[in-house]
Amino acid sequence: MKAPVRHKNSEADLDAAMQIAIGAAESARGFTSPNPAVGAVVLDSSGRIAGVGMTQPPGGPHAEVVALREAGDAARGGTALVTLEPCNHQGRTGPCSQALINAGVVAVYYAVGDPNQEAAGGAETLASAGIEVGAGLREQEVERGPLRAWLHRQRTGRPHVTWKYAATLDGRSAAADGTSRWITGPDARERVHADRAKLDAIVVGTGTVLADNPRLTARMADGSLAAHQPVRVVVGLTEIPVSAHILDDSAPTLLLRTRNVDEVLAALAEYTDVLLEGGPRLAGAFLSAGRIDRIQAYLAPLVLGAGTAAVAEAGVRTIDAALRFRHESVETIGTDLLLSLVPAGVGNLDSPQNP
Ligand SMILES: NC(=O)c1ccc[n+]([C@@H]2O[C@H](COP(=O)([O-])OP(=O)(O)OC[C@H]3O[C@@H](n4cnc5c(N)ncnc54)[C@H](OP(=O)(O)O)[C@@H]3O)[C@@H](O)[C@H]2O)c1
After folding, report:
1. What is the pLDDT of residues 215-244, one digit of tens each?
2. Can you say whether residue 146 is alpha, beta or left, with left for phi > 0 and alpha for psi between -120 and 50 degrees?
């Protein structure tokens, strides 16, 4: 084993480069499934950015290879920063650990270790080749960000489900006459569309389709369709009128004739990042089945005093049985608040209800 060669980058330089790699990973979300959205940065031997890469759609090169190609000879003696441990297996694209060794980098830093046994071991291979290896740089940010759903699926075998809803201060998700459009302001709606463009699937119940006739597409500020559209999924036994927007040709749509939450998740097994955007009944069914991995609650500064509660029935009869969550973040988005929550009582991203 060769002695590790020390690189000259400061911690702040490495941290700044990892932030760029995280941004690159975010930009690939929605396009890489079932592969993880990974970002990579290659610094040359004097610490300048020589290449930035992100995972390409399945069959295409991994982030490291894209960044190394851009860097070319400048990678020799340089440093690579990657959001996921470089893979070690000969998949469709060859091991990234070997590509990094061949390119002559002297140091590799990654955020999150690869939990996938088949691909793991990249760090060891790099270290055996005399490359300085560091793990855990901005790990939590990557675990909660671009790799969140993929890591969840690796650990549990199920898609990661985020329940997103908008409610008033008094917890109403629709007015007494059933209308619920525009509870939140334009900034929140823009954010919802940007988030949709990174997802694999959006799920609603037949009730929401019949009440609101939503399109459930990811749209840009000018109304045009985003480059990636998640699959739209409607759950329930009621027929949907053929004229429903959700059946138009702007994105694929799946009709699941069931009321069983685990059947829904089994039907969506090939997907990684799933958003539940349904109404109170489907939300209650997912909550009581323990199949919500994160909540994104948009809280709007208005009061209705009457109307539909955000959750219809979650099987809770007494306060001791309340389903408890803890904040992961609170953001102000225009005039609204966005609370991101995960099931309480766990230090990691997986729900205690979802062993
Ligand atoms: N503010 C928001 O964030 C938001 C978001 C979405 C909807 N909404 C509002 O919510 C209202 C619609 O509420 P909703 O509860 O009817 O919508 P929903 O939850 O989307 O749909 C309810 C339907 O889901 C189906 N379903 C599938 N599995 C189920 C299960 N395990 N348990 C219960 N139902 C299951 C049932 O369809 P079948 O009867 O066909 O089997 C049920 O009637 C509308 O007023 C809409 O505007 C608000």
Report:
1. 999 999 899 999 999 999 999 999 999 999
2. alpha
Domains of the chain: 11-146 (3.40.140.10), 158-343 (3.40.430.10)
Residues 53-94 have pLDDT tens digits of 999 999 999 999 999 999 999 999 999 999 999 999 876 667
Centre of ligand 1 to C-alpha 137, Å, is 42
- Check if 238 has its Cβ closer than 6 Å to any atom of ligand 1: yes
Question: What Rg, from alpha-carbon coordinates, does the chain have?
Answer: 22
Cβ(242) – ligand 1 distance below 6 Å: no
Say how far apart CA 38 and CA 111 lie, in whole Å: 10
Q: Is 205 in the pocket of ligand 1 (CB under 6 A)?
A: yes
Residue 164, phi then psi, degrees to nearest 5: -110, 130
Q: Record the pTM.
A: 0.92
* 143 three-class SS: helix
Say how many C-beta atoms besides its own lie within 10 A of residue 249's C-beta: 6
**Which residue's CA is minimally distant from atom 37 of ligand 1?**
236
Per-residue confidence at 352, pLDDT binned at 50, 70, 90?
very low
| Contacts for 279 with CB less than 8 Å, ≥ 6 apart | 173, 174, 204, 205, 207, 208, 211, 308, 312
Question: What is the distance in A from the centroid of ligand 1 to the CA of 58?
Answer: 34
| 312 CB within 6 A, ligand 1 | yes
Does residue 141 have an active-site annotation? no
Which single residue is written with the structure tokens 């000879």? Answer: 73
**Quick check: CB of 302 below 6 Å from ligand 1?**
no
> Three-state DSSP class for 111?
strand
Of these residues, 64, 118, 239, 263, which one is catalytic?
Answer: 64
CB 39 within 8 A of CB 23: yes
Closest residue CA from atom 24 of ligand 1: 205
